[in-house]
Design brief:
Layout (H helix, E strand, L loop, with lengths): L1 H36 L2 H7 L2 H23 L2 E10 L2 E8 L3 E8 L5 E7 L2
Antiparallel strand pairs: 1-2, 2-3, 3-4
Length: 118
């Protein structure tokens, strides 16, 4: 009986996990494209309202322009793991590879993003 319940939980949870993965895929692709194009408005629109208020458009502009001038284009994002609601990716730039940690809110907007050395 326990195995049947466990199987049912796994089957019902899979679509939720797939939706979550699709949201992350969409957001990371949009972030990469807009980061490389230096489209600050589009990057800012990817952020959750709380992040927009906390960072402001000027802060996002400094963040994107600073990272782009120091690291170059963001060439690839490779998924590493998901832990405690935060997805980690290897972010391969022209000049360096960093770990990008990303958390999305329920609406698929960026709630947390940071880059750090591996």
């Amino acid at each position: 009986m326990k195995y049947i319940v466990l199987l049912l939980v796994c089957i019902t949870a899979q679509p939720l996990l797939a939706q979550d993965a699709a949201a992350y895929e969409t957001t990371t692709k949009a972030f990469q494209e807009n980061f490389n194009a230096q489209n600050i408005d589009a990057v800012f629109d990817l952020y959750a309202t709380e992040m927009q208020e906390e960072m402001t458009k000027e802060g996002v502009t400094r963040f994107i322009k600073g990272c782009h001038s120091q690291f170059g284009n963001l060439n690839t994002l490779t998924f590493i793991e998901s832990a405690e609601g935060i997805n980690s990716y290897t972010a391969a730039f022209d000049n360096i590879s960093l770990v990008m940690e990303l958390k999305l809110n329920a609406d698929g907007k960026i709630a947390t993003i940071q880059f750090q050395e591996p």
